[in-house]
Write a structure and sequence with these properties.
- Helix 1 crosses helix 2, helix 2 packs parallel to helix 3 and helix 9 runs parallel beside helix 10.
- The longest helix is centred in the middle third of the chain and has 18 residues.
- Strands 1-2-3-4-5-6 form a six-stranded parallel beta sheet. A two-stranded parallel sheet has the order 7-8.
- It has ten helices and eight strands.
- It has about 260 residues and is α/β, with parallel strands linked by helices.
- It starts with a strand and ends with a helix.
- The structure holds 6-hydroxymethylpterin-diphosphate (HH2).
- The site of 6-hydroxymethylpterin-diphosphate (HH2) has 21 residues, from strand 1 and strand 5.
- 6-hydroxymethylpterin-diphosphate binds next to strand 1 and strand 5.
Length: about 260
């Protein structure tokens, strides 16, 4: 899954794809580079980010979705039902909701009505404050219990179970150690029986593990290592910024499996 953030302030690619033509060109290049789907987002959820209004989020993503319609398989990274509805009408196949259907009471019904796929992600707290002091007794079991509960909620709302994938939410209310533990214990999440999505790409935990306690991003080499490790532990979808390099690494890893 390639990432295209149509935002001025995303943590690693803010501003790069803020122009709709640039965003659409990036998405098309990702498809050529081997992405199966491209995740379009109009609101940064980096630690400390402020929320974006509905009008502004629509203004950012709709022109990009219009340019990609019929050309690229699209996922819409949003927690707002109106953004999801517009994206689904413009051909998006998957709704990637970092609130796991807790943010907008109407989103579950909209996904169910459209027969779309949905990604349910774990987050402790909310983006403005989530990195202040994340606390777990056992991060893998608590994330799994949360995702199991959200999976039940989604199915009860009418979303077909086979349309649902689950994501531990790397960096969303987790310390460096907790992020790495979630990948090393990915089996706990796989036991829920749904495909697992992992988004470690460029995240600050990578840079911090490599010795910079103030790092805001991580290098490509570390992103690829994390993606390959997640793949080898059973992740199905890797959410990444640098599609070509990840596809090359994952192709080799799968040939060696
Ligand atoms: N991470 C980000 C945003 N959306 N969705 C899922 N399912 N999993 C993730 O790990 C995930 C996500 C944050 O990364 P990015 O989109 O690059 O940055 P920003 O939120 O600053 O736009």
């Amino acid at each position: 899954m390639g990432i295209v953030n149509v935002t001025p302030d995303s943590f690693s690619d803010g501003g790069v794809n803020f122009d709709p033509d640039a965003a659409a060109a990036t998405a098309l290049r990702m498809l050529e580079d081997g992405a199966a789907i491209v995740d379009i987002g109009g609101e940064s959820t980096r630690p400390g980010a402020d929320a974006v209004s509905l009008d502004e989020e629509l203004r950012r993503v709709v022109p990009v979705l219009e340019r990609l319609q019929g050309a690229v398989p699209v996922s819409i990274d949003t927690a707002k039902v109106e953004v999801a509805r517009r994206a689904l009408a413009l051909g998006a196949e998957l709704v990637n909701d970092v609130t796991a259907l807790r943010g907008d009471p109407e989103l579950a019904g909209a996904v169910a009505d459209a027969g779309a796929y949905v990604c349910l992600m774990h987050m402790q707290g909310e983006p403005r404050t989530m990195q202040a002091n994340p606390i777990y007794d056992d991060v893998a079991s608590e994330v799994a219990a949360f995702l199991e509960q959200r999976l039940r909620f989604a199915v009860d709302a009418g979303i077909a179970e086979e349309c649902i994938c689950l994501d531990p939410g790397i960096g969303f209310g987790k310390t460096v150690e907790q992020n790495f533990e979630l990948i090393s214990r990915l089996d706990v999440l796989l036991a829920l029986g749904r495909p697992v999505v992992v988004g470690f790409s460029r995240k600050s935990s990578l840079g911090r593990l490599l010795g910079d306690p103030e790092a805001r991003t991580g290098p490509l080499s570390a992103s690829i290592a994390a993606a390959v490790a997640a793949y080898e532990r059973g992740a199905t979808i890797l959410r990444v910024h640098d599609v070509k390099e990840h596809v090359e690494a994952l192709t080799v890893a799968s040939a060696l499996a």
